[in-house]
Amino acid sequence: MHEIFDKVNNRVVSNSSRWTKKKNTIALTIGDSDFSLPPPIRDSLIKRADQVLGYENISDSLNDLVIERADSLYDWKIEKHWIVYLPSIVLGLNLCCRIFLDKDEKAISELPVYPPIFNAVANANRSLMTLDSHISQDRWGFDFDKFSDLAREKKLRLFLICNPQNPLGRSMNREEIEHLAEICVENDLLVCSDEMHADIVFDKRKHFPLATVGDSISQKTITFMSPSKSHAMSGLGGAFAVIPNDDLRKRFLSRSKGLIPDLNILTLTAMEVAYAKCDPWFHQMLRYLEENRNFLMKNLGKLKGIEIIEPEGTYFLWIDFRKTGRKHPVEDLLSRGLELSDGADFGKKGFLRMNFAGPRSVLREACKIIQALLD
Q1: DSSP-based three-state secondary structure for 24
Q2: What is the pLDDT of residue 286?
Q3: Phi (first) and psi of residue 261, to 5 degrees
Q4: Helix (H/G/I), strand (E/B), else coil: 316
Q5: CA 100 vs CA 42, 73, 120, 352: distances in Å
Q6: How many domains is the chain partitioned into structurally?
Q7: Are 162 and 194 in contact (CB under 8 A)?
Q8: What is the reported pTM?
Q9: CA 131 to chain CA mean position, Å
Q10: Same structural domain for residues 68 and 22?
């Protein structure tokens, strides 16, 4: 099945947000993958498009799939009425900042982090406290001591976390998740947990949703998940929130009336088929992504000047260019035909993020450009 993922899809001629009009540039930026849809999803969409494309209810079978996956993958017993469907996780993050933060209250998030988290707080005209990540034992660590200190801030109400972490690629283990939960419960913090990349973890790791480590943290956590990244359907969207706390869920639903559009019939079809029929495709893709990661670590990890911590999850490589002596690495690479995401957008200058969810032949060319820049 490797040939499916080795295929180079020409997205330059499309209206892709990442690739359009970039004929001579390798664009490894925006977080969609360059893989074709899993065949079961593609076939189901074609079949559904031949029918009436009317308004669609959430099916019992989709709810059952979400509940069964939570149980089998995470030993997480969730109830049907806890699930709230959304077009995207970004919408959910924005709603949380508007609904659960009063004007004088603050949110906190780790740096660097997925830019829409910054935007969600700014869009709500609220204040954001930040916590720097650090390297510990050759992996990206969460600064629990500092977080514990900051969590005592009286006006701090909301913790926005991304796990697996975008862009760091860190996947928290059970001990870390339990420590995080303890601090949040002690300080009465509401948590919005963006777990978009929950399925994409490497080296046979297990993802631990924050809400699974005890009822106390479960009652304070809104968990966001989606098949869109893991099943090559970013443009279709589709996500869901799991909100066990009745009061939080009622408040979320009542305050968001008229703001959350219904998911369209094709998105619902794709979500259901992704969870019901695409496990073989997904496991092959995950293996291919892990091999991509290994290829990049082998080829870029040896280059002088840059530093990379091996990602444990997601399909992003977070590259430290600060010791290269180059003040504008984004522009330097772009002038040579490679576009990476600027770390400044994630809250950390001097870093670049590479999206490696694509054919290895494209990554090979990207490595050559980076190597040529540093030689």
Answers
A1: coil
A2: 98
A3: -70, 150
A4: strand
A5: 38, 29, 12, 33
A6: 2
A7: yes
A8: 0.96
A9: 19
A10: no
